[in-house]
Amino acid sequence: MTMQKKCFILFLSIIFLSCRKDIIIENTPENVFLTFWKIMDENYVYFQEKNLDWDSVFNVYYPQAQAAKTDRDLFNIFSEIIPLFKDGHVSIQGALKDSSFWISGSYVNDTLWAFGIYRPEAEYIRIEDLGFEYKVGSIDYFYKNFYGYQHKNKNYALIFTYSMGNVGRYNTTANELTESLNYLDYKDGLIFSIIDNGGGWYGEMYNIAAMFFSEKQVVDYSTFKTGKGHNDFGEKIFTEIQGKGIIPNSIPVMLLTGPNTYSAGNAFAYIVKDLPNCISVGKKTGGGSGGKLSVVLPNGWTLCHPFFKVFSIKDENMEFGLMPDIYVKVEVNHMDDTSTGDVLLRAIEVLDSINGF
C-alpha cells in the first residue's frame, strides 16, 4: 500500500470519528453540566480544604440540569454551585441573550474580596492629613497602577500597588517600582501597601518580592495533580529565586494587608512577611494561591479553576488568608483609598517607635 493511500485512509478515519455523536459533546444543558462536573471532579485541587462534598452537589443539581431547557436555566444552576467553592479562582464567564456575565466563587474568609465592604457611616483618614504628598506613580486609562508618596516631615515613603504584573489594564512591575523608589527618600522606613492588590502574574510577583532581599532563597512550594482522585498529588516542588537587594534590609518595611489582598498579592504577603525587617499591618488577607486554568464548555462558556497548590516555607497552605503581625480593626471602603488611613496611621506609629520619634 502506497503512502498516499495510507494517508487517505487515515484522513477518512479522522472524518468518521469526528462525526460520531459519542465523540462530540453536544451543546445541551445536561451535557454542559456533566462536562463541568467532570472537569472539576478530576482537576480541582481544594476539595478537602473546602470541605466540599462534590458527589452531593451532583445529586442535588444534576436533576435540575436534566430538566433545564435554556442557558438561562443553566446560569441559575451555576449561580448556586460556584459560590459553594468560596474560591475566587473558580468562575464561569459567558453570555446570555441579553447580557454577558461572570459568576465567581469569590467569597473568601467570609469576605467578598472582589468588592470590599462599603460603610458610608465610617469616618476615614485622608492620606494627605497624615503628612504624605504624591510624588510618583502612573495611571493607565482610569485604572490605578501604583502610587508613590513621600512623607513631608520624615524620611518615610509610601507605595500603593494594585496588581503584580500585566493583568488587563493593571500593570505594576518590579522595574517600574524600582524606578519610582529612586525618586523617594525612605531611609527611615518604607510603607508598602498591598491592601487592594488583587493578584496578577506569579512571575512578576517573584520579581517584586526579590526587591526586598539580596540572597538566593526558597520562597514557596507547589504540588500538582498526578491523577483523577481528589487527593492525588505529587511531591512538593520548591521555588527558589535570586534576591535583587533593591530595598536594603536595614530599612524597616511596613507591609499593609487586607481582605482584598488576593492570589499573587496574597502569596507576596506570605513571602515578604517573614523577612527580618518586615512587619505586616492591617487585616487578614483574602487568600488564594496558585495559577488557574481556563476551559471552554460545550456551550462556549469559559470555566476557570486553580490547578495546583502553593505552600509557604513554613508549610502553610497559601489558599487561606494570612493574619498580619499587627491587626488593625478598621472598616474597609473599597471605593475610597483613604479607607486605608487607620492602617496607615498604625504603620506610621510603628515606624516612629522604631526610629525613636
Fold blueprint:
Blueprint: H1 3-18, H2 29-43, H3 47-50, H4 54-67, H5 71-81, E1 87-95, E2 100-105, E3 107-108, E4 111-112, E5 132-140, E6 143-151, E7 156-161, E8 165-167, E9 170-172, H6 174-181, E10 189-193, H7 202-209, E11 216-224, E12 237-242, E13 253-257, H8 264-273, E14 278-282, E15 292-296, E16 302-306, E17 308-311, E18 326-327, H9 341-355
Parallel strand pairs: 7-10, 10-13, 13-14, 14-18
Antiparallel strand pairs: 1-2, 1-16, 3-4, 5-6, 6-7, 8-9, 11-12, 11-17, 15-16
Helix pairs in contact: 2-4, 4-5, 7-8
Keyword list:
9 helices; single chain; 2-enoyl-CoA Hydratase, Chain A, domain 1; 28% helix; 18 strands; 357 residues; four-stranded antiparallel sheet; alpha+beta; seven-stranded mixed sheet
* Gross geometry: elongated
Helix content: 25-40%
Number of discrete helical segments = 9
H-E order: HHHHHEEEEEEEEEHEHEEEHEEEEEH
As a whole number of angstroms, the C-alpha radius of gyration is 24 Å
Indicate the CATH architecture of the domain at 128-286 and 321-355.
Answer: Alpha-Beta Complex
The first-level CATH class name of the domain at 128-286 and 321-355: Alpha Beta
Rounded average pLDDT? 84
Largest sheet: 7 strands, mixed
- The main sheet orders its strands as 5-6-7-10-13-14-18
